[in-house]
Amino acid sequence: MRVIGILFLGIAILATGCKGRKNKLAKANNQEVTISMQYTEMPCGGIEPPEDIRQQMDIPKPMASESLKVYRFNGPDNFEFITNLILDKNGIAIISIDTGKYVVSKYDLNPAPTVDSTGAPADMSNKAQCELQWARMTAFPLRITAGKTAYELLMMKECNPCEEPKP
User: Fold this and answer.
1) Phi/psi at 81 (nearest 5 deg)?
2) What letter would DSSP give residue 139?
3) Cβ neighbours of residue 142 under 8 Å, at least 6 residues apart?
4) Which of 21, 47, 49, 144 is deepest in the core (most CB within 10 A)?
5) H helix runs in 46-89, sequence order
């Protein structure tokens, strides 16, 4: 009986050790990359701004002190949250990430399912569906490749078609 107990203990230790080694190998594939985010903007509703203001809107500016989300892109409606991307005052962040296809977004691309008052699943409202589709359309693609350590992303701050235009 004692031999069987020792045998099970040995198997448990071996299994735990292999799992730990696998996690270390998975983390070893990650590489440290620097991401620099800038943006331009477009007028949203109302009268067209004067040319000088329009030109200022077209000049890239750092996305200073923003919090963005990084998702692994697994398909058009399949985004796996990876990490938050906290940009400094110059719009720069350093993260450790594996090679692959990702998207960067200011919005949650995987909202929690909606439920009705009884707790049963409910359909999303038209506005919520519009917001989710718009968030996924504005997610910025990012392909991390082996050996490349710096990425510069230029995003356009677009008008949200799900909201009323500004006067």
Assistant:
1) -60, 130
2) P
3) 35, 70, 101, 102, 103, 104, 151, 153
4) 144
5) 51-57
pLDDT in single tens digits along all 167 residues of the chain: 444 444 343 444 444 444 443 333 345 579 999 999 999 998 887 788 899 999 999 999 999 999 999 999 998 889 999 999 999 999 999 999 999 999 999 999 988 777 777 777 778 888 888 999 989 988 999 999 999 999 999 998 888 888 887 65
How large is the C-alpha radius of gyration of the chain?
23
Best CA proximity match to 42, nearest among 138, 143, 152: 138
Residues 65 and 85: their CA atoms lie apart, in Å, by 10
